[in-house]
Amino acid sequence: MIMETREILRKVQAGELSVEQAEGYFRRQPFEEMGYAKLDTHRKVRSGFAEVIFCSGKADSHLLEIFGRLYEQDQEVFGTRATKEQFERIREQYPQAVYDPVSRIIKIEKQEKQKKGKIAVCTAGTADIAVAEEAAQTAEYFGTAVDRIYDIGVSGIHRLLSKLAVIQQANCIVAVAGMEGALASVLGGLVDKPVIAVPTSIGYGASMHGLSALLTMINSCANGIAVVNIDNGYGAGYIASQINRLALSNCK
């Protein structure tokens, strides 16, 4: 396991680690060379968030070794877009790994992790939940408390209004929608917090696999809306966690 900067400095202060030993830790390369991959072991020090595995398309042998190396570093690991077959291979070596077939997330997570702050992850329809869960579980993995508010699309606006008080209490809102993608604009006009819009590839032919929702969200007349790529729940969950951390730090 790789020690974090603060832990190294505390050990030096307590006399448990010499200055020379600490210097050796800081001189290490900020990545681990694996030949086919370079693990960014320094990312958590730089950004506050450890590296995450994008599982789709990876060879089983590569995925297994990357998963194992990241787990050894921090005793937890998070992978997105994993198949059930990939999970079965990983579970053979790491029986504590869990898999969610809806979001396609595979992870080993520290049980004592405290969830702080609050974000709201909202969907227009039930068909958008897979992408929403990728966002919600990403945020939770990075220590953010999440309210899930699903199926509040504009075809029944009263459903959204019934949950508005909960949504307005969040430090950031993630709006996940396919079809025409109008949910983000509606939410943007009702809250005083940032809205991260996530277009999904859900819809009929003219939705063009999410392009229609993407264009709607980019062209929104509501203020405070930022847009991530089509079906990019992970990206939305990550940014929402950053915003949540900023909100918490400003409250201190």
**Structural class by helix and strand composition:** alpha/beta
What general form does the structure show?
globular
Biggest beta sheet summary: 5 strands, parallel
Work out the helix count. Answer: 11
Q: Helix proportion of residues, in percent?
A: 40-55%
Q: Note the run of SSEs as H and E.
A: HHEEHEHEHEEEHEHHEHEHEH
User: Reading side by side through the largest sheet, how are the strands ordered?
Assistant: 8-7-9-10-11
For this entry, what is the oligomeric state of its chains? single chain
Compute the number of strand runs.
Answer: 11
pLDDT < 50 runs, ≥5 residues: none
Distance between the termini: 31 Å
Average pLDDT reading: 88
- Bin the strand percentage: 15-25%
- Rounded radius of gyration (Å): 20 Å
What does this entry look like structurally?
With 252 residues, the protein is of the alpha/beta class. Helix content is 41%, strand content 17%. The protein is built from eleven helices and eleven strands. A hairpin with a 4-residue loop joins strand 5 and strand 6 (105-108). Helix 6 crosses helix 11 (233-250). The longest helix is centred in the C-terminal third of the chain and has 18 residues, at 233-250. It is globular and about 60 Å long.
